[in-house]
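Anyone up for a design puzzle?
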């Protein structure tokens, strides 16, 4: 009888371990946005970005978090804001202009960096020249 009890315990432990493994949460991704300009300039672009993420199955608060740092046109704030984002151990930082990119690269060379231009997020950006600029910025 004790052998049967032992096997039952082993079976239950293995079954419980498999169930726990199957129930593990998917990775929660963290994205940072560093924007040098005014928040009003970027609000429509950020909305489009969020919408596209949602279409791809990424929902803010569910499986991604987005941290925003906006310099409101004050370039001298970029290094401190970039350092804040780097300190959060994000998966990627998104920027929109060269000064933003340089601030992030100065703060960290290891965090992946993505830069967008209005052609990428704007429905108007469908000309060949816009697509070329988009490809360069993503490259």
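Challenge accepted. My sequence:
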């Amino acid at each position: 009888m004790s052998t049967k009890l032992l096997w039952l315990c082993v079976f239950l432990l293995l079954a419980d371990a498999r169930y726990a493994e199957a129930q593990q949460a998917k990775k929660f991704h963290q994205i940072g946005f560093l924007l040098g300009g005014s928040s009003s300039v970027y609000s429509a672009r950020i909305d489009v970005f969020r919408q596209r993420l949602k279409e791809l199955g990424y929902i803010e608060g569910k499986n991604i978090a987005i941290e925003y740092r906006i310099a409101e046109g004050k370039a001298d704030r970029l290094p401190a804001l970039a350092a804040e984002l780097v300190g959060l151990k994000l998966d990627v930082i998104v920027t929109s202009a060269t000064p933003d990119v340089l601030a992030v690269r100065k703060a960290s060379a290891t965090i992946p960096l993505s830069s967008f231009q209005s052609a990428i997020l704007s429905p108007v950006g469908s000309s060949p020249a816009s697509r070329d600029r988009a490809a360069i910025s993503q490259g």
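A detail worth pointing out: DSSP finds six helices and four strands in the chain.
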